[in-house]
Amino acid sequence: MRKKYKAFNPPYRILMGPGPSNVPDSVMESLSKPVVGHLDPVFLSIMEEVQDMLRRVFMTKNHLTIPVSGTGSAGMEAALVNAIEQGDHVLVCISGVFGQRMCDIVERCGGILKKVETEWGTPIDPEQVQTALTEFPAKIVAIVHAETSTGVLQPLQDISNIVHEKDALLLVDAVTSLGGAPLKIDEWGIDICYSGTQKCLSCPPGLAPITFGPLAIEKLNRRSSKVQSWYLDMTMVQKYWGPDRVYHHTAPISMIYALREALRLVVEEGLADRWERHITHHHSLVQGLEQLGLKMLVDASYRTPMLNSVVIPSNVDDAVIRKRLLEEYNTEIGSGLGPLKGKIWRIGLMGHSCTRENVNHILSALKSLLAL
Amino acid sequence: MRKKYKAFNPPYRILMGPGPSNVPDSVMESLSKPVVGHLDPVFLSIMEEVQDMLRRVFMTKNHLTIPVSGTGSAGMEAALVNAIEQGDHVLVCISGVFGQRMCDIVERCGGILKKVETEWGTPIDPEQVQTALTEFPAKIVAIVHAETSTGVLQPLQDISNIVHEKDALLLVDAVTSLGGAPLKIDEWGIDICYSGTQKCLSCPPGLAPITFGPLAIEKLNRRSSKVQSWYLDMTMVQKYWGPDRVYHHTAPISMIYALREALRLVVEEGLADRWERHITHHHSLVQGLEQLGLKMLVDASYRTPMLNSVVIPSNVDDAVIRKRLLEEYNTEIGSGLGPLKGKIWRIGLMGHSCTRENVNHILSALKSLLAL
Prior knowledge:
Two copies of one chain form a homodimer. In chain A, helix 1 packs antiparallel against helix 10. The first copy, chain A, is globular, with a radius of gyration of 21 Å. The N and C termini of chain A lie far apart (55 Å). The first copy, chain A, is α/β, with parallel strands linked by helices. In chain A, the strands form four sheets. Chain A has a seven-stranded mixed β-sheet, sandwiched between helices. In chain A, strands 11-12-15-14 form a four-stranded antiparallel β-sheet, with helices on one face. The longest helix of chain A is centred in the C-terminal third of the chain and has 21 residues, at 271-291. In chain A, strand 3 (89-94), helix 4 and strand 4 (112-117) form a beta-alpha-beta unit. The model of chain A has no long low-confidence stretch (mean pLDDT 97). The first copy, chain A, has helices spanning 25-31, 41-58, 72-83, 97-108, 126-135, 157-165, 185-188, 214-221, 234-241, 253-269, 271-291, 318-329, 356-369, and strands spanning 14-15, 64-68, 89-94, 112-117, 140-144, 146-147, 152-153, 169-173, 192-194, 208-212, 295-296, 307-311, 331-332, 334-335, 344-348. Chain A has two domains: 14-18 and 270-369, Aspartate Aminotransferase, domain 1 (Alpha-Beta Complex); 25-267, Aspartate Aminotransferase, domain 2 (3-Layer(aba) Sandwich).
């Protein structure tokens, strides 16, 4: 018997959680352009454009700058498995869920792990890194730029200096910051950096932009063992994205079309204007939340503009409010993760979702729902 | 200075290579439906439908049947890294590129590898497996069902019996066969099987359907070490695809929409009718090619219907013909891989690309180009 499945029509949600963000129409349209082969000359030229635009958005000249064929977490894994060989000393800075996840992957790579930790909701102090590195011969220091679980924007410049004084490589998670806050790969001396498409680039989830600088490439080429993931092995993947176009795996064609258009929109707006838009609406949102009597989790000096962690008042039921927001206002915000579950909401203002209208909308909705 | 990038309009190609295949309009339309969050109740019900339909298409009751968030090669890696622990004996059957790729991954997993090989263009003989297993205590036997590099359809039933007599698990690559030729996971006793979306399912590339049977789950649960890939770790991924919906990584929402629609079309057509359509057009194609004086690489008893390997006549320039097909006929066919490079063409009749019109079209184009 053949069961009948109906067509499906997901509702248009106002996406103000920790990602995905809303996707511009032209990106949606790109998704459904005709699929061509992954070795078609037409596709090869699209790949070049994507790499060129990714370099602009990452502010880097790094040749090996590509989208990994998986979501942001695949980017994290790609960065770590390529950087780490069994027995390498790796220092991971933890201020939330994504730092923890890095530790898990480092251990799976056979890295010797040391952790530097800070209270969730606060950034890592460069001195912590300095101290840790005096006694731990790290080859790699890994840190999250915008910690999506807390809403902390981690300053990187001082830490980068400390890391390079010790001849280690700096590996940065920029899943949430790329395209929404300043991130200057070359100027700041970041050796490896990965991101996701579904946050401030406002492309659907499915790809992970990644970039490897000269020191990272040197370490990659000096490896005495194969990268433990075949799928994410940059020594092989780069030959498909390089002049030889050696087939490795079939590229996710449609997603790369979408990323091309999403990047085109970022370049068209300009990075500086885009960062300013994120800051402006972030300030309005915070001001409005504070006028409602709500408190931010993170100190004003370290807030990510694109992800706003709001402390849930003690008399309010987290899940009920989020459910009503979704059902009555068609609006998604994020819950807290780990120790912050039930304690904060995470309100995203990412890329295409970062608008004055959305700020006004969420403030007005929260005002009604909290009866403030 | 802001560089201007233009909108892009890839041409509509007739995709008759080894994948991707052409994508039906309704699948394209699904791709661009509004993105919702990966924990949105609407999305959770789509996930359930996708799992339900995948089970029908794989012909299995396996609970752990999901799309991996990566292309077919990520499916291969997911199957192997979850199945293998350091020191496990793994027998890999090689009759082409994809068997070789499995070996590479087995070694990266720390598996103890033994190979059973056959000439490219011929299938593995069950006796080879039988013999190999008398002296090699394999926990896993890995084999490709439809070898995309040669066009051989590997019979599996006898090999499955041999493998299970030895208490090993059977791991099958069905990237090219799923939805185009009989593949009966439960009936044939396949323990782990993965596929891709861009072949006979005619969804764009980007996801890898995978299924784990009870014995595979038992081995997974008995592991004494973590799966070496965090991203592909089924002990974690299954908690997101299971009743608890524990966040693991952001699902590639739009691609899963597309897969849902592609699977809906497969279920609507019916597996038996779909297999028959592939056989019918395959026979017409072979007949037509032989009338043109061309020879098939593979013996008639072992041909994959969806991928037809044609021997390139010695006086013909492989690259020139493929280039002219692409430029003058807007049609893609595949070149040979590895030792078959320059020796064969691979003509795909996969899913939506498997039509009488396409058979007539490619025969007529080859007739003109080869001036036969």
